[in-house]
């Protein structure tokens, strides 16, 4: 079975997309055997249009506008069948707690998020203090 990484965003404009390219480059460089799936919640991603030529070197699949639901009594997404998906890693690139809770409902081995100062992460996040 192929190893997979989900990178989650709430959607990004061109500037956000450019800032996140080094992250994608580093993931692909360190873990070349992993399939990288990029998911947005409500917005669209520039990786599927303006930056598609660059991003296609790193991203294997894009899921746009997943419209995630944090409530356990409802489906994770009414648009995509996410309950059957499983990932080795999920990287949450946004910090909204409700979106993070919704994302936590997707099966994974390791979940990493800066939301709520890393509270939801499986791995401790070192946050540098601003001086």
UniProtKB/TrEMBL annotation:
Gene3D superfamilies per record: Glycogen Phosphorylase B (3.40.50.2000)
Protein name from the UniProt record: Uncharacterized protein
Species of the source: marine metagenome
